[in-house]
């Protein structure tokens, strides 16, 4: 089945493949070989953009070699580590294909599934996710990911619950992602705002070929908090409901004290109840102020107009 024509006869490729690279030196050779072999087998015109996110393992040297050996490969190196989503958006910003595919550098996502993703996308979908019926991650990673996804499902109803970083995006939709300039990027959150025409296909989740994941529990928690505060007002709504509940509770408490005083059950002012009320409601006020402060902090950070990423080297324009 053919999805395009050869690279030599067309300026705009059918497929742009964006690979955020972080400590991926050991797997890049095999990944590029499999990507190229798959695209050539199905006559898909393509380009590969390797975005090196300063992982410190000298991946850039290999990327330069791959770019020199293959005309379809382009290397982009960021000036420092900006994170996976920022690196992905950087590659998408420079992708020219009719479709844009994002894939990790760890060989857990099979390049051989690309034709199936393209076939599904051509049915009229803007996004096609390659989802994993069974994940090969460690149990704690699967558990924390599942918890985060359930939280996101409640906080961002439009978000595809089964999103993955193995995604095929229609070119115009992908390039529209660059209009977002949040300092805490979340590609799938952006996509949920741009279109609801998405689909999924099952793909095998392969074992990581080299090394181990750099995502720790702490990083996952920080990432989850950033997404919740940036893409949802759920924390603010919870704080509002908590404030309403505490106000009602305080009113009921005050009413009971007044009644008790009127019937003579209270003869002296109680220091304990007074301090308990001050501490309890003072704590709730601080909690609500803290949530509001998180939003104000992000507004302040956004107003500073800091760049999402900065390129240090580009094999196309050194």
UniProtKB/TrEMBL annotation:
All copies of domain Glycosyltransferase 2-like, residue ranges: 16-148
A single GO CC term, please?
plasma membrane
The UniProt keywords, alphabetically, are:
Cell membrane, Glycosyltransferase, Lipopolysaccharide biosynthesis, Membrane, Transferase, Transmembrane, Transmembrane helix
Q: Which GO terms describe its biological process?
A: lipopolysaccharide biosynthetic process
> What one GO molecular function would you report for this record?
undecaprenyl-phosphate 4-deoxy-4-formamido-L-arabinose transferase activity
One family name in Pfam for this protein? Glycos_transf_2
CDD domains this protein is in?
DPM1_like_bac
Kindly indicate where the leader peptide sits in this chain: none
Membrane-crossing residues?
A: 238-259, 271-296
InterPro entries tied to this protein = Glyco_trans_2-like (IPR001173), Glycosyltransferase_2 (IPR050256), Nucleotide-diphossugar_trans (IPR029044)
Full protein name: Glycosyltransferase
């Amino acid at each position: 089945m053919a999805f395009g024509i050869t690279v030599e006869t067309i300026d705009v490729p059918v497929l742009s493949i964006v690979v955020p690279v972080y400590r991926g030196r050991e797997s890049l050779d095999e990944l590029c070989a499999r990507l190229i072999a798959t695209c050539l087998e199905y006559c898909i015109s393509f380009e590969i953009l390797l975005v090196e996110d300063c992982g410190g393992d000298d991946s850039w040297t290999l990327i330069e070699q791959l770019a020199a050996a293959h005309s379809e490969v382009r290397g982009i190196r960021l000036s420092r580590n900006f994170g996976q989503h920022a690196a992905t958006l950087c590659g998408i910003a420079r992708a020219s294909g009719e479709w844009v595919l994002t894939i990790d550098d760890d060989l857990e996502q099979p390049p051989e599934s690309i034709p199936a993703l393209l076939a599904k996308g051509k049915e009229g979908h803007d996004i096609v996710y390659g989802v994993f019926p069974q994940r090969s991650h460690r149990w704690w990673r699967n558990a924390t990911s599942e918890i985060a996804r359930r939280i996101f499902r409640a906080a961002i109803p439009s978000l595809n619950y089964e999103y993955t970083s193995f995604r095929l995006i229609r070119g115009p939709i992908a390039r529209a992602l660059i209009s977002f300039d949040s300092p805490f990027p979340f590609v799938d959150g952006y996509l949920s705002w741009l279109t609801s025409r998405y689909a999924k296909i099952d793909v095998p989740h392969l074992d990581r070929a080299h090394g181990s994941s750099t995502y720790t529990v702490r990083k996952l928690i920080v990432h989850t908090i950033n997404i919740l505060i940036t893409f949802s007002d759920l924390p603010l709504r919870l704080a509002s409901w908590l404030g309403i509940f505490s106000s009602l509770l305080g009113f009921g408490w005050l009413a009971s004290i007044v009644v008790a005083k009127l019937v003579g059950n209270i003869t002296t002012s109680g220091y304990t109840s007074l301090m308990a009320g001050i501490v309890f409601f003072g704590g709730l006020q601080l909690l609500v102020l803290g949530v509001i402060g998180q939003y104000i902090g992000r507004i302040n950070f956004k107003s500073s107009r800091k760049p999402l990423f900065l390129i240090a080297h580009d094999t196309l324009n050194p």
